[in-house]
């Protein structure tokens, strides 16, 4: 269980400044949400902090240590990321066994069969799924495999980039409940990107509302139900979500 700190993170793509200068802190064991319209920079923060993108300035700290000072092995053991699309994040020609065993081989970790079996149990999949391929799995099962892949190195922090948005509504609930159970059992720190304030309300302790790369306001989860935001854009965003939920 480790904290996450984003300090003055900034990135430009050509002439466009995507993140002007973002700063926020996530306590160890907390689930922190990032919400906002498409293009507001939510996923870019995760990609920068995980060093999938390295052309940014500022800093990101995991447990007080800069990700820039970590070797790739240490960084992968400290944090992992679950992507939005379970169809695209798994190689179509790689079996579940390959998906789960490769991180263990790269990091020279033993007891591979036991660890893979445990990872599948952790995400609620039977052990005989180990030799299946992505086309033999449903969308929800693929996302469970993607989560198992993130768990296999026993990280302290999980970055969740819209982990349920590509799934059917009933499957979304299963994955959300799975993530909540794993956090309770293993003490993960989550940083979660989502467009869905209902998901944020269900999972997160606090959340940041983003617009054009800036954090407009940071609020506790309880602020959603009564729309207690003070910033105009945050109130508008939460209000639109509440209106939609009532209409549905």
Brief characterization of the structure:
The chain is α/β, with parallel strands linked by helices.
Structural class: alpha/beta
Q: What is the H-and-E element order?
A: EEEHEEHEHHHEHEHEEH
How many beta-strand elements? Answer: 10
The first-to-last residue Cα distance is 37 Å
Describe the largest sheet: 6 strands, mixed
Average pLDDT score: 91
Uncertain stretches: none
Label the overall shape: globular
Question: What strand order characterises the main sheet?
Answer: 6-7-8-3-9-10
Radius of gyration from the alpha-carbon trace, in angstroms = 18 Å
The first-level CATH class is given as: Alpha Beta
Q: What's the name of the CATH homologous superfamily?
A: P-loop containing nucleotide triphosphate hydrolases
User: Helix count?
Assistant: 8
Strand residues, percent:
25-35%
In CATH, the topology is named Rossmann fold
Q: State the helical fraction.
A: 25-40%
The CATH architecture category equals 3-Layer(aba) Sandwich
Count of individual domains = 1
Would you kindly provide a written description of the structure presented here, covering whatever features stand out?
It is a single chain. The chain has 248 residues and is an alpha/beta fold. The chain has one domain: P-loop containing nucleotide triphosphate hydrolases (Rossmann fold), CATH 3.40.50.300. The protein contains eight helices and ten strands. The protein has a six-stranded mixed β-sheet with strand order 6-7-8-3-9-10, with helices on both faces. A four-stranded antiparallel β-sheet has the order 2-1-4-5, with helices on one face. Helix 3 packs across helix 4 and helix 3 runs parallel beside helix 5. The chain starts with a strand and ends with a helix. The model has no long low-confidence stretch (mean pLDDT 91).
């Amino acid at each position: 269980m480790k904290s996450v700190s984003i300090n003055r993170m900034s990135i430009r793509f050509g002439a466009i400044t995507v993140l002007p200068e973002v700063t926020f802190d996530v306590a160890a064991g907390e689930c922190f949400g990032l919400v906002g319209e498409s293009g507001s920079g939510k996923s870019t923060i995760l990609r920068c902090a995980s060093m999938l993108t390295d052309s940014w300035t500022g800093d990101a700290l995991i447990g007080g240590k800069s990700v820039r000072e970590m070797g790739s092995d240490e960084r992968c053991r400290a944090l992992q990321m679950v992507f939005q699309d379970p169809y695209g994040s798994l190689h179509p020609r790689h079996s579940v066994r390959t998906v789960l065993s490769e991180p263990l081989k790269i990091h020279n970790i033993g007891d591979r069969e036991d660890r893979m079996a445990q990872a599948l149990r952790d995400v609620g999949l039977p052990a005989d799924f180990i030799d299946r391929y992505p086309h033999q799995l449903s969308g929800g099962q693929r996302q469970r495999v993607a989560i198992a892949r993130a768990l296999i190195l026993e990280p302290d922090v999980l970055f969740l980039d819209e982990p349920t948005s590509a799934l059917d509504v009933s499957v979304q609930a299963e994955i959300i409940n799975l993530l909540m159970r794993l956090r309770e059992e293993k003490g993960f720190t989550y940083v979660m990107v989502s467009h869905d304030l209902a998901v944020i309300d269900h999972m997160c302790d606090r959340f940041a509302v983003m617009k054009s790369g800036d954090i407009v306001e940071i609020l506790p989860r309880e602020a959603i139900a009564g729309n207690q935001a003070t910033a105009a854009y945050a109130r508008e965003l939460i209000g639109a979500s509440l209106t939609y939920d009532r209409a549905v």
